[in-house]
Amino acid sequence: MSQYNITEAKAQLSDLTRRAMAGEEIIIARDNRPLVRLVPVQSPKRPREPGSGKGQLLWIAPDFDAIPGGFEEYL
């Protein structure tokens, strides 16, 4: 973790951004009190599209729906 005051952070913003993107924790402080943490933005996940996995499931065991031995009492 590295801590910088606002003036230092302003002067080194490009470098601090690069370091935060590399995984380093960067704290920006005022009067030695932490104010903000510089972290990378997480990319939003794409919504799943119906049919996008078509053709990817190649094989299902013929006994897929069969009840395993010893589990009959739980049904």
TrEMBL record:
> Which protein is depicted?
Antitoxin
Instruction: Please name the NCBIfam families in this protein's record.
Output: phd_fam
Q: What is the native source organism of this protein?
A: Thiocapsa rosea
Top-level taxonomic group: Bacteria
Q: So where does this one cross the membrane?
A: none
Please report which protein family the annotation says this sequence is part of: Belongs to the phD/YefM antitoxin family.
Gene3D superfamilies according to UniProt: YefM-like domain
Known function: Antitoxin component of a type II toxin-antitoxin (TA) system.
